[in-house]
Design goal:
The chain is of the alpha+beta class. Helices cover 35% and strands 27% of the residues. It is built from two helices and five strands. The protein has a five-stranded mixed sheet, covered by helices on one side. It is elongated.
Length: 96
């Protein structure tokens, strides 16, 4: 039984190595999607997955403009949140 699992493990590692060399990965890559979120009494731009904010703005419109600039640069999306935290809109700048 251990011989079969050893062979199976070796085959799995071989397949993973081949896929990695071809540019495929089983780990999820971080995206550059920009979220416009309420932050204290103002608005902030935060990259998806980050805890820290990218920039802080007094107006939501200014934060949206900044997020659009970043999203265009990195072919990402802008996700605009409401003051309550729900998603209001999503704008895509991805080139599929």
């Amino acid at each position: 039984m251990s011989n079969k699992s050893t062979i199976a493990d070796a085959i799995q590692k071989l397949i993973e190595a081949i896929l990695k060399s071809l540019g495929y990965s089983n780990t999820k890559k971080r995206t550059w999607h920009q979220h416009v979120v309420p932050y204290q009494e103002d608005w902030a731009v935060r990259r998806e997955g980050n805890k820290r904010i990218t920039s802080k703005h007094r107006k939501q419109s200014t934060a949206i403009r900044k997020a659009k600039t970043l999203a265009k640069r990195y072919n990402a999306d802008v996700i605009i949140h409401r003051e309550s935290g729900g998603i209001r809109d999503r704008i895509s700048y991805r080139e599929d």
